[in-house]
Amino acid sequence: MNKIDRRSFIKLASMLGVTAALPSLLTACDAEPETAVAPPVNSSAASSHTVLIIGAGAAGMSTAYLLTQQGIDCQILEAAPTYGGRIKRTDTFADFPIPLGAEWLHVEEGELQKIVNDDSVGVATEIVAYGPEAMAGYYEEGELYTEELTDSDLKFVDSTWFDFYDSYIVPSIADKMRFNTQITRVAYDETGVELTDQNGETYEATQLIVAVPLKILQDGDITFAPPLPSNKQEAIAEANIWGGIKVFLEFSEQFYPTALSLPENMTNTGQQLYYDAAYGQDTDKHILGLFAVGSKAEPYQALDPATAVRDYILAELDEVFNGRATKTYVKHIVQNWNEEPFIRAAYYADSADWLLPPVFSEPVDDKLFFAGTAFTNGNDWGGVHNAAQSARDAVELVLGYPVMSE
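^ that's the sequence the OP posted. Answer follows.
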């Protein structure tokens, strides 16, 4: 019988926020850098920098926020008409916000205060842990087994990752974001960087932080002059990036456990999980979420989202719950991340090579820096907390000093 422990649940639980468990020999590499006193805001170090950022997802927004805290002149150029990227959410499907992308906090709640990086600001975002009443279901060979769900991930209450960023990060950088601006070319030399967008307009700065999804680089949406180093090009080309989909269904009653695992739901090529999306919320709605990535997402992605995917899912659930899904179905919503034009995937696969993320994130000629869920030290990837950490790492490389508050 399959088991959902913390490691498995993290891998199954969040479309854009998975924590990848890696070899224990890497643990020592995950220590926080030594702290030092940062130069005061508006110092000569700050005045010597102008920084452009490509991408207004969690990494790009965190990057701009930290640079702004340090008095650095920066601007985010975002291809989409709004900010958020893979922390997208909707507040029209239910009476609480539904996270269409990243959903869980996979690390301690203190990470939210760490992202804000200002001890004078109290983070009021409510978080809930899974209690003893939370049950994990395992369906195998025609039988449904249940046991207590043991998991240390945290859920946002009446909120999402998007709402957290919208409340604490966006207000200080809102005037620094330019939308509908797709960067197609990056030129760089010892004097600085020059970016060109889809309309031929150019932008110049001292340095650049690239905070677009890894899939966008892999597909060659941005050309670099000179080209990126060969090892970085090879690593990006080789990257195993999972596609992904999330589906939410409302039912008139709850007939399902907190988490439901189907046979072969977690493999090296893909993962799938049904889960109670309304858990911990102040609601009487019964909302079931489906998360699927890689090969496990493909059957759902191949179907018409309006009807066929609904019927496929209801049939899948009816087998487990003796027809109760079809009898109690109300409505559904689909988020296919492969169809987002400036994202086109979920994240770097959990089973992918852990040696590649450090290559993804390596700076180029002290001009190009990289941030995002996959641009890490290889110890962990895929979560919003990884995006935020990568932003801190990139900003500290740009400035040459730590930026975290003490």
